[in-house]
Write a structure and sequence with these properties.
Strand order of the largest sheet: 6-8-5-9-7-10-11
Enzyme class: transferase
Number of domains: 2
Catalytic activity: thiamine phosphate + ATP = thiamine diphosphate + ADP
GO biological process, one term: thiamine diphosphate biosynthetic process
Number of strands: 11
Strand content: 15-25%
Pathway: Cofactor biosynthesis; thiamine diphosphate biosynthesis; thiamine diphosphate from thiamine phosphate: step 1/1
Number of helices: 10
Domain PurM-like C-terminal: 154-309
CATH superfamily of the largest domain: PurM-like C-terminal domain
Distance between the termini: 43 Å
Shape: globular
Order of helices and strands: HEHEHEEEHHHEHEHHEHEEE
Radius of gyration: 21 Å
CATH class of the largest domain: Alpha Beta
Length: 332
Amino acid sequence: MPGRLNERSVIAMIKEMQPPSPRGVLGIGDDAAFVPRAEQGWLLSQDMLVEDIHFRKRWATPEQIGAKAAEVNLSDMAAMGATARFALTSIAIAPDTPLNWIRRLYRGVQAAFSPRGVVILGGDTVASPDKLVLDVVILGTPSQTGPVLRRGARVGDRLLVSGTLGDSHAGLVLLERRHGRMTSSQSDAPLLRAHLEPKAQVELGVGVAPLVHAMTDISDGLAQELVEVIEVSGLGADIWLDSLPTSPAMRALAERLGEDAIRWAVFGGEDYQLLMAVDPSHVPHICTMSRQWGIDVTEIGVVTSKGGVRWIKNEEPVEMRGEGLAFEHFAH
């Protein structure tokens, strides 16, 4: 029967969506893929999205789910200043899932990968009792100066972030409060897009790679990512809360709901912006460079020799608490 779901039909569909593999690369069709040695070596990253943990089918289209799975992996490559090249995708699907739904999911994956030249080389397809699981492994090559790591920040480095913070969390709040129903409010639309359709800062990550001492993407919230960058180098940071970049839409929603927009910016996750530690002399160049991609970069703090993160508001240290905002796997 046309459209019936089986493993071979899913694999054939994914293969049909791929462009021809580059010369010397072996893709879908054999027991394993083959990728030749790269001069600068390979970077590998992996992210898994699980239904009702990372997404809900009643909130997002198949295309949005597929594109998000690709974008979160591309964001890891961007954070290391790397260019994504290939991917492996594995999917666990309930047997009653229509084949066309899976096709739409992979159209979303391709919509994110194809413009970046990423080719899917293989993966796995299995049955699931009920929930959808989509796992992506991505391979990329670092810049000529090598991969940018989380560690490497130096005392006196300026801390920069791309874009705005807290929009994705605001979009999640909207969806939860409206039980997944989409809103027609023009002011809320950018917040929903930030959560459902995140965009990895690929061009910016590659462009700034030679100029930054450390970098990571903001997937688990600014507070958590700061700890990852600062503690690994045995240093600290002063963060100027008044300087955090936030969108008018996010601030308006927080005010409407009686919430603190700054807490959303600090602890809300899934922004997929870049956090960079940069020598002060490079800050103007990075800010100018970012504008060619239509991205604003904001200076939000400085790396210090004192351990831990100090939150500064109106030139005075304040306490920031993230209870109920920061997501932690296995916390419940």
